[in-house]
Amino acid sequence: MLMIPGPTPVPEKALLELAKHPIGHRSDDFSKIMAEVTQNLKWLHQTQNDVLVLTSSGTGAMEAGIINFLSRGDRVLAGTNGKFGERWVEVAKAYGLEVETITADYGQPLDPEQFREKLEADTEKQIKAVILTHSETSTGVLNDLETINRHVKAHGEALIIVDAVTSLGAYNIPVDEWGLDVVGSGSQKGYMIPPGLGFVSVSAKAWEAYKTANLPRYYLDLGKYKKTADKNSNPFTPPVNLFFALQATLRMMQAEGLENIFARHQRLMNATRAAVKAMGLPLFAADECASPAITAVAPTQVEAEKVRSVMKKQFDIALAGGQDSLKGKIFRIGHLGFVSDRDVLCAIGALEATLQMLNVEGVTSGAGVAAAAEAISQ
Amino acid sequence: MLMIPGPTPVPEKALLELAKHPIGHRSDDFSKIMAEVTQNLKWLHQTQNDVLVLTSSGTGAMEAGIINFLSRGDRVLAGTNGKFGERWVEVAKAYGLEVETITADYGQPLDPEQFREKLEADTEKQIKAVILTHSETSTGVLNDLETINRHVKAHGEALIIVDAVTSLGAYNIPVDEWGLDVVGSGSQKGYMIPPGLGFVSVSAKAWEAYKTANLPRYYLDLGKYKKTADKNSNPFTPPVNLFFALQATLRMMQAEGLENIFARHQRLMNATRAAVKAMGLPLFAADECASPAITAVAPTQVEAEKVRSVMKKQFDIALAGGQDSLKGKIFRIGHLGFVSDRDVLCAIGALEATLQMLNVEGVTSGAGVAAAAEAISQ
């Protein structure tokens, strides 16, 4: 049982699609799948922009989202408060961009005011893009994309490039309403299928920037993907089986409806956080900036890795550990994608039992499940 | 029934692996799969070099194989006699490499002598790499990699970067014995699984070049893949389901044995070519340079696209068409990967029936299947 922030659980319907024999990617049958999937991706992104599909992880999609719209020496403003925010800074630097960062401590949200100040100070419009991780998977913090984006729009020139890898399909991101230029995501998250596909939505303004952007690229050249996507095709052989599965899960998402999907993730988050609090374990991120996809717990009474180990061995539930500097300090409960109320109750029940097995003091038996159940019933 | 050069047919065993629920990519279980797969990839490549796995198409793997070992302005020599050879020239130029090409007409092999001359003339050792497509998928031509490589080795400085996308697992490519520095391939070919994985083998000499290579890269940075592969892990979330399938097909390949695999592809090629000749259809590539993976046919008595159309509609057999300038001029029969003698007999039988249905003159009924059967029985 996967309760990690990706790969996330995959519904049986999608698993069976994966087992279908591949078809030719230049066939009419595949074009029809591409056409449907593209329409439904636009629906999911709440946009009329292009939503392009790459054979890559989310990182490949985000790199494409950065390098297609900028030129060597361009100044960009990047928010970092976790491993993924830092990764986009590394990408930007690898391509010779001039990166200015706005940082917050791990577990803290980025301060929109700092973006406003930097952007307002840039009267010569030197800042070409703002790069931002919406839901920071490494810490469980949701940054205030809506407010930061408002400051970017007030700037007028800069593109906003958003890592929505663990927020798309979990939290409301109205791409057109907010005017988000580039939004990157990955298949093993809210999409409910295995890893292997990266997604990038691209606004008209970003395509304008593409015309003069000069960073080298070929496989990640989004112009090639747009040109072929317009004909329901791909520039390079796509992972056809993952497209079969994606077609199935996008239909499931449409049947559930965006509002219901977002409400479900909110409920799963509330239930998980209420339970963790009731068990007396410290949450790593505050309620005000909690990610709907993942809850990080920073236990003080017990080693995080011991909790993960018992959860895996005794209950076959995979939780995620901390990454890099957070290794051993936190464990992370994923509640993203194909996750139900029942799954969260089950995981919380197992977590309570785990704490008992590890003789953690101060845990009231049943308090976690009771708190989760109450949150769900509200 | 897929008789195209990729995606190629996938055995049931691998399809069922695809339908397994994903597991965490940072789990011990996945590390074990990585360890086994990596060992078996080395076996398949006949090498002790690193064989790294990317979430990408074959193009992504080849781009990684080019951009990790070269610097802006480096001079490279590239052979082009088809769409894929040309693609690597485009990649090299996109990154600012200085490309000199050795060309041959579509359907003709590259002349090794031209490589020898260029390389011998380069006494100042300015040529940093030779880029070559082994089996040119667009034309069904197999270039003489062994001889060209010998000239590269005589040069001493230049790396040899090989596109083995449709030759690896079909033709003997002893990477260590020949000293091939970089070899790129893709999962939907000889590997017998769906598209989604790219492979790059990297020699010690190539890693030396990596140290000073300065082309920008992040997602395609092979150093990151090596660092994590050494710990049986991945820098970015890998498509775990494709790894399950790959584990299964590599075991199948080991059970069959390299020599048997190569002999089977040789036999399928011989049978296909004998049949096409017996049916009176012109082969696009000569016997001396015929690819063991794909046979291109350039019919004069009937439109290539009509043949493909009837084969698809009447017999549900997918053949490939010509690409770009060859569109409508050739059709291509794939016999790569999970293809048996029976499959070829079946496709040839259907092709004969198709020609009859299209009233193509000069085709002796049964001659194709008879010739294929004879070639198989030899």
Classified in CATH, the superfamily of the largest domain in chain A is: Type I PLP-dependent aspartate aminotransferase-like (Major domain)
Largest interface: A-B, 53 and 54 residues
Order of helices and strands of chain A: EHHEHEHEHEEEHEHEEHHHHEHEEHH
Q: What is the averaged pLDDT score of chain A?
A: 97
Tally of DSSP β-strands of chain A: 13
Oligomer: homodimer
For the structure shown, list the relevant keywords.
homodimer, 378 residues, Aspartate Aminotransferase, domain 2, Aspartate Aminotransferase, domain 1, 2 domains, 7-stranded mixed β-sheet, 4-stranded mixed β-sheet, 14 helices
Task: Please specify the SSE layout and strand pairing.
The structure is a homodimer of 378-residue chains.
Chain A: E1 2-3, H1 12-18, H2 28-45, E2 50-55, H3 58-67, E3 75-80, H4 83-94, E4 98-103, H5 112-121, E5 127-133, E6 135-136, E7 141-142, H6 145-155, E8 159-163, H7 175-178, E9 182-186, E10 197-202, H8 204-210, H9 222-229, H10 240-256, H11 258-278, E11 294-297, H12 304-315, E12 318-321, E13 331-334, H13 341-357, H14 367-377
Parallel strand pairs in A: 1-12, 3-4, 3-5, 5-8, 8-9
Antiparallel strand pairs in A: 2-10, 6-7, 9-10, 11-13, 12-13
Question: Can you put this structure into words, describing what you see?
Answer:
The structure is a homodimer of 378-residue chains. Chain A is of the alpha/beta class. The first copy, chain A, folds into two domains: 245 residues, Aspartate Aminotransferase, domain 2; 121 residues, Aspartate Aminotransferase, domain 1, CATH 3.90.1150. In chain A, 44% of the residues lie in helices and 16% in strands. Chain A has a seven-stranded mixed β-sheet with strand order 2-10-9-8-5-3-4, with helices on both faces. Chain A is globular, with a radius of gyration of 21 Å. The two termini of chain A are 26 Å apart.
